[in-house]
Structure formats: C-alpha cells, structure tokens
Write a structure and sequence with these properties.
The complex is a heterodimer of chains A (301) and B (338). Chain A is mainly α and 301 residues long. Chain A has helices spanning 2-12, 18-32, 34-51, 53-56, 88-124, 126-141, 144-155, 159-185, 189-196, 201-213, 215-237, 249-259, 266-293, 295-300. Chain B is mainly alpha-helical. Chain B has helices at residues 3-28, 36-41, 47-57, 63-75, 89-124, 129-143, 146-160, 185-191, 195-232, 235-242, 247-283, 289-299, 302-330, 332-337. The longest helix of chain B has 38 residues, at 195-232.
C-alpha cells in the first residue's frame, strides 16, 4: 500500500527537464570548485571567439592599411594598429583560432601516444618500463622550451611540426599518470579475472584497464593544453615555426617587442593579455579538475 | 653515510643521464631528415669545409660508430665550431656561464624569498582569503609568458617612468666594463672599486632579475604551501598542539620540516628555469648562455645547439649536486635515505 503511494507520488512529480538538470549539475560543480567553473567560462569565451571570428572581427586580420601604421587604440581600431597597419583587435580574435588549432591536436597526439604506452609499460613492467621511466625523468629535469625549440629547428619549421613536437614532449606526462594508475590496478580482481578468462593482452589493456586508468590523464589534459598554448606562442615569439604576419599571439608579441621601447605598447600588450587570460582559464580549469578527479591530490591539499 | 660517499653515489647516478643527453644531441642533427653535415657546417661552408666536417663525423660508418666518434670528441672537449662566429663552441659557452649564473642566482634567491614566506602564510591560513589570493597569484605566475612580462616591465620602468635603463645588455655603454675576475660585472666592479661600472651593472640587473624572481616564485608558493600543509597534518604537529605549545613554536616546527622538500624542489625547478631565463636574456639582450643558445637555435647554428643542450644537462647535474649538499646539511637523515 505505502509502496504504491510512494510510486504514485514519484510519478506525479514531473521529471526535471534536461536543461534544468544540466543547470543543476553546473551549480553543484561550481559550489565544489568555483575555480574550475571560472576556468570553464574563460575557455568557453575563447572558443566562441574562435567559432564566430568571422562575425567578431571588424577588419581582415592580415589586411594592411598603409596610412594607419602604428595608430593607438581608437574607435575605428579598438586595440590600435601594428607596424604593418593591420588591426590588432581583429588579429587578437583570429589568434584564438591558432591557440585552439595548436593546443587541441597536440594534446590529442600526446594522449594517443602517452596513454597506450602508459598502459603497456605499467602492465608489463620490466626492462622497457625501467628505460621509459629514466627517459621521462631526464625530460622532466630539462628545460622543455629549449628541447621543443631545438627539435622544431632541427626537423624543419612548420606549423605541423610545432604541433607534433608539442604532442611528443607532452606524451611522457600522460605515460606517467596512466602508468601509475595501472600499477595500482594491475593485481586487482577484475584484471585477474579477465586474464583467467583468456582475454588477450590488448583486450585487458584497452577494454578493462583503460576506462579505469584514464582519470589522471583526463585531469591533466587542460593543464597540458595551457602549456601547449604557451609554448606555441613562445616558439612564434622567437620566430620558430610560425612567421610574420600570421595573426598568432606569440608572433604578434614578437612584432610588438620592436616598438615597446619607443612607446607603442598596444602592439604587444593585447595579444599578451589574450594569451594570459586563456592560459589562466585552462590552468584554473585543470587545477579544479585535478582536485575533483584525483582524490589523492585532495588529501594532500 | 658521509657526505663524500653520498656525493660519489649521486654523481655515479648522473652518468646515465648524461649519456642519454649525449645521445639526444647526437640524434638532434640526424632526426630532421636534413644532411647533418650541412646543419653543422652551416650555409656558408665551402665544399672543402663540408668535406672536412663529413670526415670528422664519420658519416660513411655505422650509426653506432658515429656515436662513438661523437663521444670521443666530447671527451676531448671538442664541441665543434660555430659557423656564425667561427669560434670553438666550448670556449664561447664557458665565457657566458657566469653571465647566466649571475642572473639566475639573484632571480631564484629573490623568488624564494618571496615564495617561501607567502606559501607558508597561505598554508597557515588554508582556505582563508590570503590563501585564495595567493593561489590565484601563483596561477597567474604560471600563465604569464616570460618574455611578455619582460617587455611590459621595459615599457613601464624604462619608457614611462624612466627608472630603469633600456634592456640592452649588462652594462651601460657609458661605463667601462671592469676587468674580468668572476665574470659578473657587479662583483668585478666592486672588487676593482670601479663604482661607476658596479652601479651601472646593478641598474641593468634589476629588471631581468625581477622577471626571473616573479616567474620563479609562482611554483615555489604552490609547493611551499602544499609541503607545509602536509607537515601540518602530521602526528607530531598535532602532538605539539595538544601539548599546548604556543602557535609560534608550532609554526617554527612546521617550517623547519617543510624547508627540506622545498629546497629540493627549488633545485629541480632551477633547471627548468634556465629555459625561462633564456627568454628573459633574449628580451633584455643579456648576452648569457640562454641568449646565445636561443640565437643559435633560431639561426640554425647546430654545433652550438648541441653544445648548449649538453651544457644545460651538465648544469642540471651541478645544481642537483648542490641541492644534495644543502639537503645533507639541513637534514642528514633524510639525505641518507634518499
């Protein structure tokens, strides 16, 4: 009787709509980690810049106005014009396209190299695992900017190479986190059972271990994306990989560096601010995500 | 365990690291699918020079033999020649070591003097307002591009306020550089009582050092806070509190115990900071190792790039040894276990 009543009551209460549930979940998340939600907001904002860049840019980002060279910010050119007479505001907007265009594929490359390797070395152990860990230690102590620069310079300077090199240097970090989780899971019952049933190794790795070992790697992605945005801009600032007059933030700061001691601050300031805000957003999101996804980190905090 | 035995063991462990780096620098000019001879000899080399380099590299032999030849050259302190300056790479690099060390030393020192107290204070007030702000500042420090910070500092302190000299090297063109004793204009100027040079060198140091300090302090704040929080959760701190020790004493215990891992961390961080400092050198035309290396990378002077990467690896080994000594002095027990 009472059970029936309860069921009726449950049926009578309307199920919250999908949108309402999403909003509720977001509110819950932002209570648990406000940092993460602010970060998510910033990332979303820049994603919108990148998607709607055609509507947001008042000028063509690579169109030079020869009569308007190095003009300070005005109603026509909100962020002023650069040394070629190009509109800095439009170029900053367009730069978000490059930021995502480099960060997303390079993190994907890092994940797709690092995760399988981490699964395999963690599961197999042995000599290969030892060597891998030593290599990763060596990379960790080394100034990574120099490493990335040297490899891009040696392999030929192109945007594709920049993306590959960033992904390659990122992969050891994913190897490390995935391997740590696999080591903890390796001797658990469900893995033993899967092995006893005669599953091939690849199936144990990718069907049984992968879903359980991915948390750490996922928590890292946002921080790695932040790093990818930073490092690609650094490469462009040094004129490696991306050349003038590409509307990329680092390349724009490179041009602005020429004018800073003569007082034309707007050429370098605005792309730098865009870079900082996006990287900060990605870092904040990553920081929050690590707190949520990595219970170990939480206890040490 | 005695200090000397401990150090020998550590140095022994750095041999595989150095071998790995040597392999990397060896591979660097061969992975790009470009002719290593052309990369090392540079675009201005004559056919004769090309032939000479080709013979030196032993390119007609197997890769393993080539690697051995490379090792042999490095063992004889022959790092090749820069095609840009036509000088031996090794002496060019050694000349620039004190220049970079000067910048790094002051930068990291000031960064630690900012970072450690801020991190400790944040940990003692975990989740309070101070903690929230310092956490944000630290995140900001992780996000600011080094070179952009340098540029903005130049704009504000040179162009707007005219407090600092323009970022063009280590000493004003008006001052005569002091004779080389340590390689640091500031120290040499003071040693030779050349106060004009010392003052000029000091003025040139301020902005780049500040940049390194700001970038270095962000991770130090974060790490100090985490370490102090960990110590705060330990049983002996709880015991000290339960026994009624004054809060001041408790904090003394906490920072003494958090200091060792923080010093170790700063050591590992310094090696990464060399990259950051390179960019600052580049912006301020500092003329140290970093700027030299970056220019070599940009202009494709690969003999220099190889030597530079090798030097950085040596530098990290040296830093690790110094860190080990510090750890040993601060807490012999922990060092013995490591």
């Amino acid at each position: 009787m009472t059970a029936e009543l309860l069921m009726n009551a449950a049926a009578a209460r309307p199920r919250p709509s999908f949108a309402a549930r999403v909003v509720q979940r977001l509110i819950g998340l932002s209570r648990r980690s406000p940092t993460m939600m602010i970060g998510a907001g910033i990332i979303l904002l820049f994603a919108l810049f990148a998607i709607f860049h055609l509507w947001l840019m008042p000028h063509d980002p690579v169109r030079a106005y020869p009569t308007e060279v190095l003009k300070p910010p005005s109603a026509r050119f909100w962020f002023g014009t650069d040394g070629n007479g190009m509109d800095v505001f439009s170029r900053v907007i367009y730069g978000s396209l490059y930021a995502f265009g480099i960060a997303v594929p390079s993190v994907v490359i890092g994940l797709s190299l690092g995760v399988p390797l981490g699964l395999w070395t963690g599961y197999r152990g042995g000599l290969f695992d030892e060597i891998m860990m030593r290599v990763i230690d060596a990379i960790r102590v080394f100034p990574i900017i120099i490493l990335a620069l040297a490899i891009v310079a040696a392999t030929g300077q192109s945007l594709v190479n920049v993306i590959f090199v960033i992904g390659l240097i990122d992969s050891p970090i994913f190897v490390r986190v995935v391997r740590a989780e696999v080591l903890a899971l390796r001797s658990s019952n469900f893995v033993e059972a899967a092995r006893a049933l005669g599953n091939p190794t690849w199936r144990i790795l990718f069907v049984h271990l992968l879903p359980n070992a991915l948390r750490g790697a996922i928590a890292q992605t946002s921080v790695r994306a932040a790093w990818a945005v930073r490092i690609s801009a650094t490469l462009a600032f040094l004129g490696v990989g991306i050349q003038q007059p590409t509307p990329e933030w680092g390349a724009m700061i490179r041009q602005g560096a020429e004018f800073i001691v003569t007082g034309q601050w707007w050429v370098a300031l605005f792309p730098g601010c865009a870079l900082i805000v996006l990287v900060l957003g990605l870092n904040m999101f990553g920081d929050g995500a690590q707190d949520l996804l990595d219970p170990q980190r939480k206890t040490t905090r | 365990m005695t200090l000397s035995r401990f150090l020998t063991r550590r140095l022994f462990f750095s041999v595989p690291l150095l071998l790995g780096v040597l392999f990397f620098t060896f591979a660097l000019v061969r992975i790009g699918g470009q002719d290593p001879v052309a990369l090392l000899a540079g675009p201005t080399a004559s056919a004769q020079e090309l032939a000479l380099v080709r013979r030196e590299l032993g390119l007609d032999q197997s890769l393993f033999a080539q690697f051995l030849i490379y090792l042999g050259k490095v063992a004889r302190f022959d790092l090749g020649q820069s095609w840009l300056s036509n000088k031996p790479v090794l002496s060019e690099l050694i000349d620039r070591v004190p220049v970079t060390v000067e910048l790094m030393f002051w930068g990291v020192l000031i960064g630690a003097l900012i970072g450690i107290p801020v991190g400790l204070r944040a940990a003692f007030r975990a989740d309070g307002l101070y903690d929230q702000i310092s956490r944000f500042v630290s995140l900001l420090g992780f996000s600011i591009p080094t070179y952009w910070l340098g540029l903005m500092m130049l704009f504000v302190f040179f162009f707007l306020l005219d407090w600092a000299p323009p970022g063009m090297g280590r000493i004003s063109l008006m001052a005569t550089p002091p004779p080389r004793i340590t390689g640091s204009y500031l120290v040499d100027g003071m040693l030779t009582a050349n106060w004009v040079a010392a003052r000029s060198a000091f003025g040139q140091l301020v902005l780049p050092v500040l940049c390194v300090a700001i970038i270095a302090s962000a991770p130090i704040i974060k790490q100090t806070r985490a370490m102090a929080l960990e110590v705060l959760g330990r049983d002996y701190v709880r015991l000290a509190r339960a026994a009624g020790l004054p809060e001041r004493e408790v904090r003394r215990i906490v920072w003494r115990n958090a200091l060792v891992p923080v010093v170790t961390f700063i050591g590992t961080e310094i090696t990464g900071l060399v990259g950051t400092a390179s960019l600052i050198e580049y912006v301020f035309a500092w003329g140290g190792l970093g700027q030299y290396g970056l220019n070599a990378i940009i202009s494709g002077d690969f003999a220099v790039v190889q030597g530079y990467v090798l030097f950085l690896a040596l530098f990290s080994v040296v830093v690790f040894v110094i860190v080990d000594i510090l750890t040993f002095l601060l807490e012999p027990r922990a060092a013995g276990e490591a």
